Amino acid sequence: MKTMIFGGTYCDSEFKRELVTLWARVARHLNPNVHIALFDSASPFDPIMFLPKGLDVAVFRYEDNIGHIGHGGGDGAGRTLHDGVKYASINKYDYAVYWETDCLFACPIGEVLDKFYLTFAKVACLPLHNYQFFEWAFAVFEIPWAVEMMERYDWQSKRGPYPQVVRPSLLKKWIPEWRLQEAAGDELWILPYTGIRNDDNRVNFMNLHEMCPYEPPTWIHMLADIRLAHRFLQLNNINIDV
Questions:
Q1: Which terminus of the chain is more exposed, N or C, with fewer CB under 10 A?
Q2: What pLDDT sits at residue 182?
Q3: 3-state SS record for 46-63
Q4: Collapsing DSSP states into helix, strand and coil, what is residue 219?
Q5: Domain membership flag for residue 240
Q6: pTM for the model
Q7: Domain limits at 200?
Q8: Interior CA angle at 98 toward 96 and 103, to 5°?
Q9: In this model, does residue 173 exceed pLDDT 60?
Q10: What is the dihedral of CA 194, 153, 37, 193, to 10 degrees?
Q11: Integer angstrom CA distances of residue 133 from 25, 83, 130, 197
């Protein structure tokens, strides 16, 4: 099956430059024959300039940065999702894997798809046990079915900030994870990989092994420390030239 990986970035610091480069290296190391695309929101650090050419990552630059809906801006991640799925459809891919650039995932895409094929689902994302929604930082989409899902999601329909009146029924109409779940409907499957969403920075490079004592996490999202990223790779026995 013809498969591609895509993600998005706004790279405005040396740390993000280093993290995006590491993301590309890990994606290529684990998936040597898969097409990788990066959608860049007019970053001050241009990935076309700093990503090693040997990684063979196709970079598409937007003319603007519309921001993050959770920070009062537009739905930048939603735009990337929409355009990545559209790109996959135009280029006749069977599957598109959305993989955010502040997330590391420790398994080859082929292994993930082997599980996905058996479900007859159209879309899959990750479990997120401490939240009341799922993790979409790594998700698999069947093409071209996902084109209609992106139309239902409609990334342009919402803009931050979130409503100040904290009513769950109202917030659900803004939060991207809830809106993606609604757009997926009954076709959604949850991938059997456990990991960490580190939005409160409770996990660091020194305590990662203690937070996951039984086995290393398969994924980690919202990385804010490059040392944590390297520790994650070390625990998963992923050795790349970084």
A1: N
A2: 96
A3: CHHHHCCHHHCEEEEECC
A4: strand
A5: no
A6: 0.96
A7: 3-235
A8: 150
A9: yes
A10: 10
A11: 29, 23, 9, 12
